[in-house]
Known about the structure:
The chain is 24% helix and 20% strand. It is an alpha+beta fold and 235 residues long.
Amino acid sequence: xxxxxxxxxxxxxxxxxxxxxxxxxxxxxxxxxxxxxxxxxxxxxxxxxxxxxxxxxxxxxxxxxxxxxxxxxxxxxxxxxxxxxxxxxxxxxxxxxxxxxxxxxxxxxxxxxxxxxxxxxxxxxxxxxxxxxxxxxxxxxxxxxxxxxxxxxxxxxxxxxxxxxxxxxxxxxxxxxxxxxxxxxxxxxxxxxxxxxxxxxxxxxxxxxxxxxxxxxxxxxxxxxxxxxxxxxxx
Length: 235
């Protein structure tokens, strides 16, 4: 499956979950209702994922140092020891496991694990943008930045009803409507929210664009033009 198709499938699944699980998603979440990010000391420790790049450094045995990528099956292979599962482990847990394994060949091994790249931190931008698809989340990224990185809005975009779909802690979808036109005008910059990993920014079509699409699909393509119908669309 192509990346663009994967993005659309992901988005479709989230939409279906939100529609079918009415007991979970009762109403959209306003920007003002979003909980503040937890303090740094209360945030969950990062768990390693497939595709992450790791530096494994040995203080007393630098010849064993490695720069390695976590394989799709979540494992890594280092010298002297069997394959190790790195995925779903924190840096601390992987470090402890490596020390345990290397202690059979090394005396009191001192090992440091550093995550050099976080491959799974992604956001998705779809809908009426020029280049829909996934984007790597490096540091802080706001909705407007993500849309700009996706090539900006198409003329058919509905700027007053951009939607961010976010996963709750229980993995249920949360719908966050954004009035991007208020961000552009400067009336309400708070609508340009910070994105979180796996957020989907969806830009819907404008009403007139939907009418044009309907006419093209159901009238122009189904009624022969020689019938002499004239269709005018009011601005």
